[in-house]
Amino acid sequence: MEKKRVAVIGAGPAGLSLLRAFQSAEEKGAEIPELVCFEKQLECGGLWNFSENTGVDEHGSMYRDLYVNGPKEVNEFVDYSFEEHFGKPVGSYPPRSVLLDYIKGRAKKFKLCERFVRYHTKVKSVTYSEETLKFTVTVRDYSTFDYNEGRLYSEQFDHLVVCTGHFSTPNVPEFKGLKTFKGSLLHAHDLRDVTDFKGKDVLLVGSGYSAEDIACQCYKFGSKSVTITYRSFPTGCSNWPESITEVPLLELVDSNGRTCHFKDGSSKDVDAIILCTGYLHDFPFMPKNLRLVTGHRMWTMGLYEGVVLETEPIVFYLGMQAQYYSFTMFDAQAWFVRDVIMGRLALPSIDEMKAHSEKWRQAEEDALAKRDVKTFQANYLKELIGFTDCPVTPEFVDKTLKMGSDWDKHKELDIMSYRDHPFRSAVTGSFAPKHHTPWMQQCDDSLESYLNLGEPTPKLLRI
Ligand code: FAD
């Protein structure tokens, strides 16, 4: 019998989790389907790759000097610890470059990319035939042909898993007078270097993680002031330094092109406006009936167990949720999807799947009311791993959940130094060393600087 074929779109952390899930089944003696992972970038690792390019065609929303905003231990791969990768324990809040190296390290150890990924290949469209029960995936391959033209080709698959992330299509709301603003106006998606705003008065629109982190960065790199304007709730941070203030929503940019007026009647002259207004789930390559439609939620309605498209349970989406857990959640999801595809797990009826999602949506609403979404996501992970042999264990989830409450306390204590606190690995038991430089003074985001490579060098990966 011919091997089944699975198309995976995207080789970011979520796509790589899926490849690893299948490869681990193979390691244990199972016969796995043929996997083809299409990745439009030149490397794996998704948005942890940095590019100076900006604009809607650019996938990444990554900026210089981004350090993880939660302890790395929460998202440590259970089958590939940071200590294994770097040859020693490393600090708990590394910069982007260190995370990318680590993600690539697991991919390299399990030979995921060379076996399964076709780089520089962008999925343009997907169709599904009810007659043949096959997906046709049409891609443009920029790797071998004329760089601008690319080679268009199609292949057929039995299963389709979308792992394209949801932090690359900016949500751009309108504000009265915004078009007449005379300073720099950009979405966080296009931010590359906060030092551009040194000495400047900056307005951040939005109060989520992006606004919080960009405010900290602006402060660190010498912006004169930062004003955060929020629609529903402020950031929740109670200890901003004096030069950072929060005000209700922007109502109007004055015709002088500089003065911003807010809902509480206050106003501020600013040099730059950064829209930290979130991202849209956007799957332009998918046909309408197979397209996930959702906002940024902890529970994604329409996806059974957060991954199976309920209306068409032949399509899977990974990593579409708002995230406390990222890499570890992707693993839990990947192992579940793998087992559905391999026929190890049977799906309930569509009505049962929908009822199940309603139950989780209610739990999400309750968690939002209690302001405890971390426990909600931890419970989701526990349910998922109960179905499979995923290496993430309930004990790991409990330990990493506790890290979340310590993280909150550190942030409450001092938003500018919470990244200086070390955590203990739930995988190896090792305590992270206190990093050699406090975050506020660390102005070099390279891997070499973070790892202080004057010492014997751990294995560094450039694949
Ligand atoms: P992505 O990383 O976005 O990867 C998706 C991949 O799909 C990309 O490689 C892309 O090129 C590819 N792709 C997209 N469309 C196509 C197509 N049509 N054809 C082929 N390939 C395609 N998480 C944390 O855990 N800690 C943090 O500190 C943290 N900080 C963040 C900071 C920022 C600024 C942002 C935006 C996100 C941050 N995140 C953080 C969350 C982040 O989303 C996850 O860590 C993770 O990268 C998501 O993985 P993913 O594979 O779902 O998506």
UniProtKB/TrEMBL annotation:
Belongs to the FMO family. Coiled coil: none annotated. Pfam families: FMO-like (PF00743). Its cofactor is FAD. Keywords: FAD, Flavoprotein, Monooxygenase, Oxidoreductase. This is Flavin-containing monooxygenase. It comes from the Eukaryota. InterPro entries: FAD/NAD-bd_sf (IPR036188), Flavin_mOase-like (IPR020946), FMO-like (IPR050346). GO terms for molecular function: monooxygenase activity. Its EC number is 1.-.-.-.
